C-alpha cells in the first residue's frame, strides 16, 4: 500500500518499551490505538489459553 508507514525504529522502540513494562501488546500508531479502543478487552481470556497450548507443546 502506498501510505505513510511507521518507521521501523519507532516500532522496535515501542515493542521493547512494552516488553520492559510487562505489557502483552505494543500498540504503535494512532490507527491501531483507535481500532483497539473499539474492541472488547478479551486479552485476559485469550492469552492464558495460548500460553497453556504453548506450555503443552513444550512439555510434549
Features:
extended, 60 residues
What does this structure look like?
The chain has three helices and no strands. 0% of the residues are buried. The chain has 60 residues and is mostly helical. The N and C termini lie far apart (42 Å). The chain has helices spanning 8-21, 30-38, 43-59. The longest helix is centred in the C-terminal third of the chain and has 17 residues, at 43-59. 67% of the residues lie in helices and 0% in strands. The radius of gyration is 15 Å and the shape is extended.
User: What's the total helix number?
Assistant: 3
User: How much helicity do the residues have?
Assistant: 55-70%
- The average pLDDT score comes to 87
User: Main sheet, how many strands, which sense, barrel?
Assistant: none
The shape, in one word, is: extended
Distance between the termini: 42 Å
Alpha-beta content class: mainly alpha
The radius of gyration over CA amounts to 15 Å
Annotate the secondary structure layout.
Layout: H1 8-21, H2 30-38, H3 43-59
Amino acid at each position: 500500500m502506498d501510505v505513510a508507514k511507521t518507521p521501523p525504529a519507532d516500532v522496535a522502540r515501542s515493542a521493547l518499551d512494552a516488553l520492559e513494562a510487562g505489557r502483552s501488546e505494543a500498540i504503535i500508531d494512532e490507527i491501531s490505538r483507535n481500532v483497539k479502543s473499539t474492541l472488547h478487552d478479551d486479552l485476559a481470556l485469550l492469552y492464558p489459553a495460548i500460553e497453556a497450548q504453548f506450555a503443552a507443546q513444550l512439555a510434549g
